[in-house]
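Data availability (excerpt). The following record was deposited with the supplementary files.
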Amino acid sequence: MTTNRLEAFSDGVLAIIITIMVLELKVPEEHDLHALWDTTGTGLLTYVLSFVYIGIYWNNHHHMFQLVTRVTGGVLWANLHLLFWLSLYPFTTAWMDESDFARTPVVVYGVNLLCAAVAYFVLQRLIFQAEGPDSELQRAVGSDWKGKISPLLYLLGIALAAFVEPFLGMLPFVAVALIWLVPDRRVERAFEEHEAA
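Predicted structure:
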């Protein structure tokens, strides 16, 4: 099976997730920046963070499937598993915002981030398995230091939010987003080499 339908479905779901998140933002009644901050301030910040995360997943998902040639039933289910955790972002983002970064919502947001990362890892492993030992994607991913450090930072953020200060727990979450914002050309380079061959 080719990747076309899986990619199209995933793109649609991610677009809907972003749309739902932006609809959660409250519009200020007044027409100045103070009203914007009072009405939407933290909501806009949490939206930006979650938007960046969805963008990172969309970008990496797109690049990953440029090198995938075979989709199995396991890959389809693993992709749905990833989309499930990503589809919870609007809920956990809104709860965290509406609670003004209360302990439990921040912890739940961190768990949501961690579960999405684990789901992406599972998807990637099942693709490696489906592609076999000559997987171009596996060669392109290499040691994947970003993929290994991200869950550790999520766990740190969850622990800080749960046992120290919820707002401090946000710092590792922001750090992971910043790590992944730096362009990673491994998969793009492998795709260019594949196209040139």
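Summary of structural features: Residues 4-196 form one domain.
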